[in-house]
Structures are given as C-alpha cells and as structure tokens.
Specification:
Elements lengths: L16 H9 L3 H21 L4 H17 L10 H23 L18 H15 L2 H11 L5 H8 L3 H21 L6
Helix pairs in contact: 1-2, 2-3, 2-4, 3-4, 5-8, 6-8, 7-8
Length: 192
C-alpha cells in the first residue's frame, strides 16, 4: 500500500477534504494536521468576530478540532468537512457566549472602573468602533453578517450552517447591515 503525503498529490495539487478525511480514518494522523491547517483560520475568525478575545478564540478552535477528531466517524459527508467542523466550532462558540452572559457582572458593580485610561490611537479607534458596532448586533444577526461578509459563504451555505432558511439569512444580513450603518453614522463614521 502506497502512503500518500497529505500535503500534495503526484500532480502537485492539494488533496480534497474528503481524501484527507479518508486518510485520517485509515490512521494517517498527518492528514488531520492538513485539515486543521486548512480550516482553523475560518473558525478563529468566526469566534473572534462573535466578540471573543484572542485566547478564548484560540481555545475554541482547538476544542473544535479535538471534538471533530474524536467524532470523525460522524462526518457522514467528508466532502463537506469544512461545514461540519465549522458547525462544531460555531456551537462551542454559542455555548461559550451563553455561559459568559450568565457569569457577567454589570459595569456599575465594578469599583475603580473610572480609573481605566482611555486610549487615543486613531488606527485602533477605527478597529474598536467596528468591533463595537458588531458587538451591538444581536448574536444571530452578527453571526449571519460575519458568515456572509467575512467568511464568504453564500446565503444557502449560511442557511445550512445556521439551520435557517435562505430567506431568513438574507433578512438577518440585511438587518445587520442596516444596524451597522446606523451605528457607524451615529459614531460619526461615514457609511457609504
């Protein structure tokens, strides 16, 4: 039996997700590393875009891939591994956000909050304003917007990932876009 390098085929092209999943199921662990390298940025961007900090986002990415590895036999359509592992990451992210909301403390109950210095870096101001605008959205609108405009999924793909109809996804993305535009205008940022 000939071993296939998970990074490339004889013709130099990269193997498909389905081919890599098949290799992993045969015990070739290096193929799973190729899957992780291929898809980890997508899950990280989603977690980060949902308002989670860098370290928490990294932890959730790792948890998603560990969970996916442990239950790889449940991936019934290896050609759609990307969507399957994304769903695992998305669910971990949503679970984390639910738990954070239960554990959060209102700012009014924190002492010394007024002593935290404001940063005035203009380049960071734009990033902060955009992040704040996204965080103002309800999670369901934020997620639809990020999947469509950050991850680049089609409306049909977003619908499949979020268990919603394509028309519901289009409405969520539209509402998110309008809410973001209104927030940015309120903040004095020109929204074209």
């Amino acid at each position: 039996m000939r071993h296939v390098d998970p990074q490339s085929r004889d013709d130099g092209s990269a193997p498909s997700d389905a081919e890599l999943v098949t290799q992993v199921m045969r015990g070739e662990r290096a193929a799973y590393a190729a899957l992780v390298n291929r898809h980890q940025a997508l899950i990280y961007r989603h977690a980060s875009g949902m308002g989670l900090d860098h370290d928490t986002s990294l932890d959730l990415v790792q948890d998603a891939f560990v969970k996916a590895y442990m239950s790889l036999a449940e991936c019934h359509d290896p050609a759609h591994f990307r969507a399957w592992v994304f769903r695992i990451g998305r669910n971990l992210c949503l679970d984390h956000l639910k738990n954070v909301r239960r554990m959060s403390v209102p700012m009014s109950q924190l002492s010394g909050i007024e002593n935290i210095p404001d940063r005035d870096d203009s380049a960071e101001d734009i990033d902060r304003t955009l992040r704040e605008a996204l965080l103002q959205l309800p999670p369901v609108l934020r997620e639809a917007f990020l999947l469509k405009h950050d991850a680049g999924y089609t409306y049909d793909e977003v619908a499949e990932l979020t268990n919603a109809s394509p028309s519901a996804v289009k409405m969520r993305v539209h509402r998110a876009r309008e809410a973001l535009r209104a927030f940015l205008i309120d903040q004095g940022v020109s929204a074209a």
